[in-house]
Write a structure and sequence with these properties.
alpha+beta, two-stranded antiparallel sheet, 7 helices, 5 strands
């Protein structure tokens, strides 16, 4: 009972960090057309880059306004961190620590990126970030951890931990908790 309670509490924190990684990866892809396998590149991007947005002033459906030149398209840039972590009060340190698995003693998430050809021969960009149970539950009851890993891997035929995205299949960046 105690193991399950603590596991669930920790999973909530690890899942949030994986969601933060996913948000950063999606923004990276929006700018660069691909995901990155590197936390250094991802973190630098979030800390220093901006996303470009376009806004129309007036309606392109109003032919008179278009003819009179009253419709304008305006581009503006917003820092990545303010876009993807808006209202969360992320500090530079929080962003630099996105690579660290909570409750792991400083171990990093395992992350990779690449491209994959689907069955319909469409090439899609993919990424994966994951944390095995043993990284964030290692200090809990050893036998309970062994049982959880065995049940997840052999009975449920799933990754024994938490992950977002996949390198081997197009998942739309879904997490295995969703």
């Amino acid at each position: 009972m105690e193991f399950e309670k603590e596991r669930k509490l920790r999973e909530v924190v690890v899942v949030q960090r994986l969601k933060d990684i996913r948000s950063a990866q999606r923004a990276f892809k929006q700018v660069h057309g691909r995901y990155t396998p590197s936390f250094d590149s991802l973190i630098n991007f979030v800390l220093t880059d901006s996303l470009t947005y376009r806004m129309s002033i007036g309606s392109m459906d109003d032919s008179l306004a278009v003819a009179q030149g009253l419709v304008q398209n305006v581009e503006f840039k917003v820092p990545v961190r303010d876009t993807i972590y808006s209202g969360r009060g992320f500090t530079d340190r929080d962003i630099r620590e996105i690579r660290i698995v909570p409750f792991s003693g400083g171990q990093e998430f395992i992350m990779d990126a690449g491209e994959l050809e689907t069955e319909s021969r469409v090439v899609v960009q993919v990424f994966e970030a994951k944390a095995p149970y043993k990284t964030f539950l290692a200090d809990l009851d050893h036998q309970e951890l062994v049982n959880l890993i065995d049940r997840t891997k052999n009975t449920l035929n799933r990754y024994p931990g938490l992950k977002v995205g996949s390198i081997t299949e197009a998942t739309n960046d879904a997490g295995n908790w969703e």
